[in-house]
Amino acid sequence: MIPPISRRTFLQGLGTTLVTGSLTACTINASRNPTGLTEAALAVTPIIDPKTLEKPHLTVGYVPVNDCAPFAVAWEKGFFRKYGLNVTLSREASWANSRDGIIFGRLDASPVVSGAITNARTGAEGARVAPLCGAMTIHRHGNAMTMNRPMWDFGLRPWQEYNGDLEQAGRQLQAYFQSIPPEERIWAVVLSSSIYEYFLRYLTASMGINPIEEFRLLIIPPPQMVNNMRIGTMQAYMVAEPWNTRAIRGNEGVGFTFAQGREIWQGHPDRILAVMESFIEENPKTYRSLVKAMIEACQ
Questions:
Q1: Where is this chain primarily localised (predicted)?
Q2: 145 and 236 in contact (C-beta within 8 Å)?
Q3: Nearest-CA neighbor of 33 among 137, 110, 100, 103?
């Protein structure tokens, strides 16, 4: 199981009731989005008059992984209301949906993977060119690389057990690859521009494995990772919580945690709150209120 990260520790400090409410907002039924205001939010007195904002009513996306916590906290605790905003949270099925929702105007703001903004600006990796902007980092760490049960049975173990010996880990991973057909050497990430793809390529290359030739990557939405591992779609994946813990505790233990993201790069950025450049230019006061609410939620 992934050890708690600082934001989770913070959430625990707020009390069981708030945590339950916040995480419920994150994992609300797929057919529904959080609507209205909680009692806690209604008790908050706005310090900014909504009438002074260019666009006080916003639709903000989130993806049901652990980094939706700031959105849930801001909604539950009334931080959006505090800064004059009336926010409707929209559950997004994937990181691609979250990104495209901003670009095509369905969402005013939403979290995106760390590489999405650069790709949108430059058109890299076939991305649609769009003036996407990063408002702030909302999430660091909280992710991990999960390998399936056959990899464990073959002898691969969690990263800590190799004590930094990349050669030994690489030999075992290479031996495993050689034991299965090339077409079965498949790993999954949530989006090609996510930090996870960089991690997978960097780590395997450091082990002496060519990440371009030795295996291929699939793009799979976070909630579908565990089930796809269970049915054998891929051997390993990297994703944010809770989809690593779910592979261990749910589905009868279909995998194990090979490495946490923070073991590969301490302090790495994971998710960015994104908006369109036009949103900032046309709604500067609204933009500042949104960022203030999110900063307070992250604290």
A1: membrane
A2: yes
A3: 110
